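Next comes a concrete protein, fold included:
___
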Amino acid sequence: MSNLDAVNALITAINFDRFAEIEARHAPDVLFTSFRGPILHDSVAVADWQRQFQRDYADCNYSQLEYVEQDDVVCVRATIEAKGYDWRALTQRVVEVLRLEDEAIVERRLYGMLRDVELDKPATAAMNNALGFKGGSVAATRAAVEGFYGNLAANRRDEAREFLHDKVALIDSVYGITAGPESVLDLISARPKPAFGIWRVTRSFCSPRDAAVELAIDPNRPRLLDWVRIVDGKIAVIEAYWMLREIGVDPFVDRAHDRHVRQVILPI
């Protein structure tokens, strides 16, 4: 049984500021981890968090939805359209990972990019190529993901490169945007490494054309999700979504400012 209807109902409730419904769609003991923090453990706290989030993101709207569903988990890649403290329009790319039981959300993780990401020409071309690809299978997606990340974890660079498309692009709002297999591998290897522990794939979810790959150092502290797009059995685009607070990036852009109060200007 698909959980897409339950997930879309939550997104609709978020878009229309229905906080009581948002609370009701989460299990009482839900575990919620977000790029803004903190980690929450009950549905009442989640509703309060969402209320604060939508004060900072006025007129919040989830758009450009894409899904990967596997077993009891639904991953949603979306673009949040909202208005900041000065009422200027902003966009922020996010991925929601939701695990459901009996249509109630029991686990939720919200990863994000920095706001207002703009793609250069090579990244735009790679994205358009991936979005236009109509083929694919779950088996091919899983083979590409497991081959690439398995070889990457084992420091087998040449073998990992074999799973990348010739015009692959990496879109990482924190560490950079680049295109080409060598440049993508260079950027991944240039990311800061932990003093203790190693990166590992903690979960992966696959569809015929896309995969959501979660990576962490401590499995109990989600850190990175790669939204991977496949073309002809090879990785064409990797979009990096971070738990921004977890990696030391301040996600509270608006907190240094009070929201400007809208005023009616009357004619003299």
User: Anything to note?
Assistant: DSSP finds seven helices and eleven strands in the chain. Helices lie at 4-15, 19-24, 43-56, 121-132, 138-153, 157-161, 181-190. The longest helix spans residues 138-153. The chain has a mean pLDDT of 93.
